[in-house]
Amino acid sequence: MLRKELHVAGLTQPLDAQSLGALLAELGVEARAHRFEVAPNPCVGAAVLAAGEVVARGYHRVWGQEHAEVDALRAARESGVPLERWDALVVTLEPCSSQGKTPPCTEAILAAGIGCVVVGSFDPDPRHRGKGIEQLRAAGLEVIVLEASPLENTSPQFLSWNDFERRRRPRPWIIAKWAQTLTGQLTPPKSVGEGRWISGSGSQAEVGLLRSRVDAIVTGIGTVLSDDPRLTVRPSAGITAPPARVVLDTALRTPTDARLFHAEPGEAAGPVHVVSLTGADFSGSRALALTEAGAQVHGLRGDDVHHLNLREVTAWLWRQGFRRVLLEAGPTLLASFLDAGFVDQVRVYTGPVPGGRGESLGSWLVASALEERLDRECGEDQVLEAFLHVR
Questions:
Q1: Could you tell me the pTM of the whole model?
Q2: Which pLDDT score, from 0 to 100, does residue 282 have?
Q3: Mind listing the domains of the chain with CATH numbers?
């Protein structure tokens, strides 16, 4: 049973445990609105209290960008309430204590000068669990752990990310994105969108933003040969480096004049990696030509002479430092990743286009157990976002 009042030295009035528990639950629900933008990171909410009242709230909104504590502290400074009146920082998850995409939140909390932190849940990662709290307490802060914001409710994707088996055989968080017609085909009729485009301009802008928020974009040689994509991004706030572009190409068929090697003005282009079967002309002319064109060529073990081993591919992506990866490919490669259980999250755009060409992924979607599902609209397109059960 929680104590009714939590007395902390230096505060103008005691903190009410029941009110804090309700606030933590509320922050967790609000933070979940950003779940597809932050995954595999947790959904985290934070609030700054003054005289027992919330003066500012903050959330982790975008993967790789500032965490909820930093967002809340900035909002508190902008609120006009002076620092000396701040009583506590309330946060749904233990503040991070190590450098990642952003500096440790413990540093931001200490720099802010706030004297009390209320935490709703421990970090489940055994490498970090309790360390953030220890750092704050060692610096003289009062830290109260209520365990009133269970991750099962706010961030099940973060628990999957920290599952023992996932940590034992690490692989990136993979988001599969595709656009489909009303009948589930990934290629429209030749009379629609130059035979290439299904989704509208708003959806295409969303995809450009999604690309800027991953470490790498993976595609297949079939997509390169048929669509000749650039897979570039438009520079915008918060982008430190454009994502790497990875082509799974068993026989090194990537053309040296592909648009991957020729970004247009105003675009940011990450390095090109061509992943092939070990021994596929690595000492021959195709590998040399691709290297001279600007690609880095890699060889991996395959399931047979025609197919890469996807477990080896995901392990290689992890070794390259890629943690959040976007899979933009045709139905064959998409289905291979989906069937192998290596896709963690999907974003599917369905345009108002009847018919289409090629295979359909509609039957796969119907049969799948989608979690945390969100259905929304983007212009005339219907958008489905969901997490998949991680094996």
A1: 0.92
A2: 58
A3: 5-155 (3.40.140.10), 169-388 (3.40.430.10)
